[in-house]
């Protein structure tokens, strides 16, 4: 997993969190039909994005601290 650097983890987490916000918004304004799968997918993407962002930030801080 050498391609998954802390910076890429943070960007991926940002995209997942953004998708976790946009999908429910589109469901509320009835652009996209609210389905059981789509509800859990948006929740899951938000949850995974939060975890991945936290891990990415921790790995980023750790790598910068070792570089000093």
In percent, how helical is the residue content? over 70%
Shape: elongated
Total E-strand runs: 0
Taken as a percent bin, the fraction of beta residues is: under 5%
- Discrete helix count: 2
Distance between the termini: 24 Å
The major sheet is characterized as: none
Question: What's the gyration radius in Å?
Answer: 15 Å
Element-by-element helix/strand order: HH
Low-confidence runs:
none
How many domains comprise the coordinates? 1
Q: What's the rounded overall pLDDT mean?
A: 92
| Secondary-structure-derived class | mainly alpha
What order do the helices and strands come in, and which of them pair?
Elements: H1 6-28, H2 36-67
Q: If you had to describe this structure to a student in words, what would you say it looks like?
A:
This protein is 81% helix and 0% strand. It has one domain (6-67). The two termini are 24 Å apart. Helix 1 (6-28) runs antiparallel to helix 2 (36-67). It has helices spanning 6-28, 36-67.
Quick structural gist:
The protein is mainly alpha-helical and 68 residues long. Helices cover 81% and strands 0% of the residues.
């Amino acid at each position: 997993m050498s391609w998954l650097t802390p910076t890429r983890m943070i960007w991926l987490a940002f995209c997942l969190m953004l998708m976790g916000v946009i999908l429910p918004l589109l469901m509320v304004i009835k652009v996209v039909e609210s389905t059981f799968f789509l509800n859990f997918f948006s929740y899951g993407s938000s949850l995974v994005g939060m975890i991945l962002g936290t891990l990415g930030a921790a790995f980023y801080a750790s790598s910068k601290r070792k570089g000093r």
